[in-house]
Design brief:
By secondary structure, the protein is mainly α. It contains 12 helices and 2 strands; from the N terminus they run H-H-H-H-E-H-H-H-H-H-H-H-E-H. The chain has a two-stranded antiparallel ribbon. Helix 5 runs antiparallel to helix 11.
């Protein structure tokens, strides 16, 4: 019976990404009626769940931290493509889309995914244990890139408004690539142990995700990698397909346009969220934090260079500077994250505090 269930699950995770891709091809650049939007949303959710499955297969084959890195980078690359596509189609009204989406991703990952992961682990194991060296390194990189890319434009004077001049934008793009590249090298080569899950005593766990499970073969891992790519392309493509409906709903509700960026970030980050919570439930909180903070860092480190290059042909302005209230939230997030990381373990209280900051971000997005 168990064998049949596993076979059915494996078949489902193969069929759904391919079906979602077909739905994407049939609905691309089409005006979708309400019932079709519902169908698209259903396939979007299915593709998200399939992406999580295939990401975990790859993670089991490669081991940490490569597994979480693959998922974070794959999702972010396609997220960047979605942002650039929407900016190209949106004109002046999309001038803040990159800023809104990236900042929403930072808030969702550093407060939402991180907070939920800590809560899940704390409920099941009393405390969430992780490696402060790796988590602190990721948090420091996020704070640096977020400040250089989204805080400084508010205070520069070479161009009017919260925008970078061409020289300043070029430096921000280069700095983002360099810092992200150094982080990946640190995570995967020189200090890989800093990003591995730890035991309750703080010792590095070198066992696989499930020490009793047989690692997948190279062929199976390669097949999962291909299906992961198909699933993620489908997720972001279908998200773009429903984005006009989202924009219309936001406008009809009288909400600020920044809410669109929040909704897009929530949809795109669903695979990381589910994968992180499943890792936390297995007491692998470091894997959860690798996914959360790695996604935030990839979102900044890859989006800023991409929109800097795209700005050469985009007709509208590129606004990256944060509003004062958002700078306060960013500062609070970095400070709270630092205080959470230093003790190397966290409780329900720290997780709740992170979720409180995310809730305030959502409130300010809806009612600035």
């Amino acid at each position: 019976m168990i064998t049949k269930l596993r076979a059915a699950a494996a078949q489902w995770t193969v069929v759904v990404p391919l079906a979602a891709f077909v739905v994407l091809a049939l609905t691309w650049h089409e005006d979708l009626p309400g019932w079709v939007v519902g169908v698209v949303a259903a396939f979007l959710i299915g593709a998200v769940l399939a992406a999580v499955h295939h990401a975990e297969v790859i993670a089991h084959w490669t081991g940490e931290p490569f597994g979480s890195l693959v998922l974070a980078v794959a999702v972010t690359v396609i997220e960047v493509a979605l942002i650039v596509t929407l900016m190209a189609d949106g004109g002046d009204k999309s001038s803040t889309l990159a800023r809104d989406t990236v900042f929403a991703a930072v808030m969702i990952t550093c407060n939402g995914i991180m907070g939920l992961s800590i809560i899940v682990a704390a409920i099941k194991y009393r405390t969430a244990v992780f490696n402060a060296e790796g988590t602190g390194t990721a948090l420091a990189c996020i704070a640096t890139l977020a400040t250089l890319s989204m805080v400084l434009p508010t205070f520069t004077t070479s161009t009017p408004g919260p925008q970078f001049s061409t020289t300043q934008l070029t430096y921000a793009a280069i700095a983002s690539i360099v810092v992200y590249g150094l982080f990946v090298a640190t995570q995967t080569l020189r200090h890989r142990d800093y990003f591995l899950p730890v035991t309750a005593e703080g010792k590095v766990r070198r066992d696989e995700e499930d020490e009793h499970a047989t690692p997948p073969t190279v062929r199976a891992a390669g097949f999962s990698l291909l299906l992961l790519a198909v699933a993620l392309v489908s997720v972001v493509g279908l998200a773009k397909g429903v984005s006009p409906t989202i924009e219309s709903a936001v406008e009809s509700a009288g909400l600020p346009h920044a809410v669109v960026g929040v909704v897009i970030a929530l949809m795109v980050l669903l695979p990381e969220t589910i994968a992180a919570l499943r890792a936390a439930a297995r007491n692998r909180v470091q894997t959860s934090l690798n996914l959360a903070l790695g996604s935030a860092l990839a979102s900044i480190g890859l989006t800023i260079p991409a929109v800097a290059i795209a700005s050469a042909w985009l007709s509208g302005p590129l606004v990256l500077g944060l509003e004062p209230s958002h700078m306060v939230l960013l500062t609070l997030t970095v400070a709270l994250g630092t205080l959470t990381v230093i003790p190397r373990r966290a409780t329900l209280l720290q997780g709740a505090l992170h979720l409180g900051v995310l809730a305030e971000f959502v409130v300010l997005a809806v009612n600035p």
